[in-house]
Amino acid sequence: MIRRFGISSYEPKQALDWMREPEVDIVQVPVNVLDKRWIEADLAGEARQNAVTVFARSIYLQGLLLLDGPGLERANMDWAAGFLRPAKDFAAGRGLDFKAFCIRVVAQTFPEAILVMGVQDQAQLEENLRLFQDRPLPAELVELWWRNLPGMPTRLLNPSLWER
């Protein structure tokens, strides 16, 4: 017997359409500091209204947010550097650890979501646990980030479109 049924989607419209189906209890979506489509689609409100649990994955955009110039080049993603820079500058300009910024913004924007993160080793697990325990960012700072973030191209936000 199936107790809970869920779907995974890269696209807000598709995820919200599925959330409205009575059989769907869970949606898994990529949520990160560069993707405000989920806010514009009111993911959190739709989840509450439809009693759906959200699993937020890809907080670091499958690691892309953590790459620097040479790393981007090796990953054939150097075209993305200009899209990543504003987030890194925003965090650095406020004295914030960038990984903590990425986690806190997602956690505070979607407080009812379950955050899913992959790790490669024990050290990463311990670091992520520590970052989850960091103090919340001021709400005004999170609002400022989202308010000033321009829309990003789907080519950046959807890893299935990346040339590998």
Q: Topology of this protein?
A:
Blueprint (H helix, E strand, L loop, with lengths): L5 E3 L3 H8 L6 E5 L6 H4 L2 H7 L3 E5 L11 H6 L6 H13 L4 H12 L4 E2 L6 H11 L6 H10 L5 H4 L7
Parallel strand pairs: 1-2, 2-3, 3-4
Word description of this protein:
The protein is of the alpha/beta class. The protein has one domain: TIM Barrel, CATH 3.20.20. The chain is 46% helix and 9% strand. It has nine helices and four strands, in the order E-H-E-H-H-E-H-H-H-E-H-H-H. It has helices at residues 12-19, 37-40, 43-49, 69-74, 81-93, 98-109, 122-132, 139-148, 154-157; strands at residues 6-8, 26-30, 53-57, 114-115. It has a four-stranded parallel β-sheet with strand order 1-2-3-4, with helices on one face. The mean pLDDT is 94.
What proportion strand? 5-15%
Summed up, the helix count is 9
**Helical residue percent band:** 40-55%
CATH topology: TIM Barrel
Distance between the termini: 39 Å
Strand line-up of the largest beta sheet: 1-2-3-4
* Biggest sheet character: 4 strands, parallel
Order of helices and strands: EHEHHEHHHEHHH
Question: For this structure, what is the CATH class?
Answer: Alpha Beta
CATH homologous superfamily label: NADP-dependent oxidoreductase domain
Count of the domains:
1
Question: How many strand units?
Answer: 4
CATH architecture: Alpha-Beta Barrel
